[in-house]
Amino acid sequence: MSGENSDSATCSETTLTVNGKPHTLLVDHRRVLLDVLREDLDLWGARKGCDHGQCGACTVLVDGRRVNSCLLLAVAMDGSEVRTVEGLGGDGGELHPLQQAFLDRDAFQCGYCTPGQLCSALGMLDEAAAGHPSRVTGDTRDGGPEPGRPVQLDRDEIRERLSGNLCRCGAYPRIVDAVEDVIR
Question: pTM, whole model, 2 decimals?
Answer without folding.
Answer: 0.90
